[in-house]
Amino acid sequence: MRYTRTELMRHRACTSRRRCFASWGGAFAFLLPSLAASNAHAEASQLDPTIGYNYQEIETPRTTATAGAQRALSTSVGALFINPANIAVEHVYHIAGFAQVWPEAHRQSYGAAASDSVGSTSHLAGAVGATYNFQDSEGIDRRWTDLRFALAYPFSEKFFAGLGGRYMWLTQSGLGPLGASVASSGLAGKQIVRTFSFDAGLTFKPAAEWSLSFVGTNLSNPGYGFMPTTVGGGIGYGKKEVAVEGDVVADFTSWDKTRMRAMGGVEFLISDNYALRGGYRYDQGPNSHALAIGAGYIDRMYILDLGVRHAFTGGSATAIVVGFTYHLDSAGLTPSAGDTF
């Protein structure tokens, strides 16, 4: 579902915004430390590290709740991580913070991002974000920092193109399944990955409600599963009250041969303020089937989101993502003419 600035301005303000924000914010503040505490384990994870690593994909709550089916209908901060072309689709100026917890994988991720498509006189849109991640401290002990940045341009009201960069450095200091061996262990105290790569995306909108997108990630082909090269796309239909999307992705690097992922998601907006989401994902790599669900509260000034996905086969794995987005455009904090580019 696309939350444009105009639509957000038309949303009815909560009659007691402070009370709503306090109750939702309090719930999020309680939830995150509880999840983090539940993720603290004294033994190594039994889950395949590839599943918990999630193919270097950084997910917002909306992405998780729709099982990753966001290549066509993503906007704002979410588009930075899944399709850079969509940064330019809507006119917004947003900042966001989000956190992921994967209990079975013993993984946590914390990130922040910003997206601006209103501050440029040339209509060029930009976004930047960063996450810090750690996985299975008692096992493989993998830690990495992931920086993302992207620019997008609306060539017309129907065609958008974007180019994104990613720079990651990663250490893996723990033991693999063969113990302290060159084959399966990391390199204690050394960065085994410090690499730049780039993504590209195209979105075509034959009508206001329809979006067709194509996305490639890590197109420099680093050649290893820490930064897998993928090509995919999605088709989505979205109106204010409902949105439906289906995506397909080919992963050329993470497994012994090219593997496919297919996903579908649906979103509903209720009473202008409440979003309900759901989705399904099939991952050919571990032969897994996953269901997702999520919810959000949408105010003129901010959005609070929660997304949960659980794989029932091919390795039981749960991803829980919470996030907060603040609308600087609605607060009148858009850049001045002297700040544009």
Question: Could you characterize the architecture of this molecule?
Answer:
It is a single chain. The chain starts with a helix and ends in a 14-residue tail after the last strand. A hairpin with a 7-residue loop joins strand 9 and strand 10. Helix content is 13%, strand content 46%. Strands 1-2-3-4-5-6-7-8-9-10-11-12-13-14 form a 14-stranded antiparallel beta barrel. With 341 residues, the chain is mainly beta.
Summarize the structure.
The protein has 341 residues and is mainly β. It has one domain: Porin (Beta Barrel).
State the order of secondary-structure elements, H for helix, E for strand: HHHHHEEEEEEEEEEEEEE
Question: Can you identify the CATH class?
Answer: Mainly Beta
Second rung of CATH, namely the architecture: Beta Barrel
Fraction of residues in helix: 10-25%
Q: What's the domain count?
A: 1
Mean pLDDT across all residues, rounded?
Answer: 87
Going by CATH, the homologous superfamily would be Outer membrane protein transport protein (OMPP1/FadL/TodX)
Instruction: Give the number of helices.
Output: 5
Structure class: mainly beta
In angstroms, what is the radius of gyration? 19 Å
Number of strands: 14
In terms of DSSP E residues, the strand content is: over 45%
Main sheet? Answer: 14 strands, antiparallel, barrel
Give the overall shape.
globular
End-to-end Cα distance, whole Å, is: 29 Å
Instruction: Tell me the strand order in the biggest sheet.
Output: 1-2-3-4-5-6-7-8-9-10-11-12-13-14
Report the uncertain regions: 1-24, 337-341
What name does the CATH topology carry?
Porin
